[in-house]
Write a structure and sequence with these properties.
By secondary structure, the protein is an alpha+beta fold. The protein has two domains: about 260 residues, no CATH class; about 150 residues, Conserved hypothetical protein from pyrococcus furiosus pfu- 392566-001, domain 2. It contains 13 helices and 21 strands. The strands form five sheets. Strands 1, 4, 5, 6, 8, 9, 10, 11 and 12 form a nine-stranded mixed beta sheet that branches. It has a six-stranded antiparallel beta sheet with strand order 15-17-16-19-14-18, with helices on both faces. A two-stranded antiparallel sheet has the order 2-3.
Length: about 425
């Protein structure tokens, strides 16, 4: 069963929480990070994207940037922008986006659970991205941003969360993207113990929703720090990493769509003819069209929207990966017709998260960035857990979770201390 622990979070005072908080480091580029920080020295972006505090052109993976992150982290603690709680706590973090709420438990998850397969992944990770997060952790001795985990709902945990939310939140603000963020501190020893016991007795696994590289890096850091500690006992802070753990019933996965830059040498008519061998193709016209069911797709091509429906025999609903529409589109259209062999490395394909809407697909095709766009029906949480439970891996760029976790509301130290 899954192990979680409370921890002494480093947190901002409520008066500056909205200014300290920011989007995750990996959903923006350097220019966007600089614009979001807008010169505010308390923003966590000065740590998570420290290149914005360095001369233009500085390699974002250089020691110069990591050293600046360390300098800014130390400054945030010295100035009191991040202050550590005196006792280990759990925290309840609620996000409300477009009227839909999701509430998770902020906790320290066990690195050993990841090694033992109790924290399950559904994506492959890249060594270079893992190493980047490991290097930053070494410099800071801290998990600066949380991992987004999910678990199969436990009614009693839902009750505990709901009870905590009846009190006045520690933080309550609206971020620039219109999302409401609220945080409650759970410091009652009895409740803390019950949360820990409920996870150990009722939660067989958690699932990485977002943050695969941070999770893998945290597990590797745990081993690395343990190997260097002659007095290692398994309870040190480095054995646990910071996560927000949500019940699966509250989570929402958005579509993750595809743009293809050319037709692989085919004429427009030849492309449509080949498409009809694997899809039922229906022209919708100039009105934007969104898929409404599994194995249904939307295509924008030559100024027109099309409804595509996969023909029987082109998918395998008994296969947890084969049933995914990203697999259906790749196996029947993107690879055999459009000639894209490797979705991870091909420069001929781009991916657009559903948060940007179908209008972004139309815009990118109309301005010549792409030749054709495909919108997909979103993956369900059941499909995600089925894949993770069977040890399978999703194709790249399959899930897009919204809202994103806000970084900066809690930070966890990673050191030899035992809390």
């Amino acid at each position: 069963m899954v192990k979680v622990r409370p921890f002494k979070a480093l947190r901002p005072a409520k008066e500056i929480a909205s200014r300290v908080s920011c989007l995750p480091y990996d959903v923006m580029n350097s220019a966007e990070a600089a614009a979001m920080a807008n010169g505010d020295e308390v923003s966590l972006l000065n740590i998570t994207r420290a290149e914005i505090c360095c001369p233009d052109g500085t390699d974002i993976h250089s020691d110069t940037v990591y050293a600046k992150a360390k300098e800014n982290f130390d400054k945030a603690r010295q100035k009191g922008w991040l202050v550590q709680d005196s006792t280990p706590c759990y925290y309840i973090y609620e996000e409300v986006m477009n009227g839909r709420s999701q509430s998770g438990i902020v906790a320290a998850a066990a690195c050993q659970d990841y090694d033992d397969g109790l924290i399950k992944k559904h994506e492959l990770t890249r060594h270079d991205k893992e190493e980047d997060r490991m290097v930053l952790t070494r410099w800071l001795n801290a998990n600066i941003e949380p991992v987004f985990l999910a678990y199969k709902s436990v009614p009693r945990l839902d009750e505990i969360v709901a009870t905590a939310q009846r009190s006045t939140p520690e933080y309550d603000f609206i971020s620039s993207d219109g999302v409401i963020h609220r945080l409650w501190v759970v410091d009652n020893p009895k409740t803390i113990n019950e949360i820990e016991q409920l996870f150990e007795q009722n939660v067989e696994a958690t699932y990485v929703a977002d943050g695969h590289h941070r999770t893998a890096a945290a597990a590797r850091i745990g081993k690395e720090f343990a190997a260097k500690n002659p007095n290692h006992n398994g309870r040190e802070n480095y054995n646990f990493f910071m996560a927000v753990i949500f019940p699966d019933s509250q989570l929402h996965i958005m579509d993750y769509n595809r743009l293809v830059k050319d037709l692989n040498g085919l004429s427009d008519s030849d492309f449509l003819a080949k498409l009809t061998t694997v899809m039922n193709v229906q022209k919708v016209g100039s009105e934007q069209y969104s898929p409404s069911a599994l194995h249904e797709f939307s295509m924008y091509f030559q100024g027109q929207w099309y409804k595509l429906t996969a023909k029987p025999g082109t998918y395998n609903d008994a296969d947890p990966v084969g049933v995914l529409d990203v697999s259906v589109l790749t196996d029947n259209v993107l690879t055999p017709i459009l000639g894209i062999e490797d979705m991870r490395t091909s420069s001929r394909i781009d991916f657009v998260g559903g948060i940007r809407g179908l209008a972004e697909l139309k815009r990118r095709v109309d301005n010549g960035d792409a030749c054709v766009a495909f919108a997909l029906y979103p993956v369900s949480m059941k499909q995600l857990t089925d894949i993770a439970d069977t040890g399978n891996i999703m194709p790249p760029k399959t899930t897009w979770f919204e809202p994103k976790l806000r970084s900066g509301l809690f930070v966890k130290l990673v050191d030899n201390n035992v809390e």
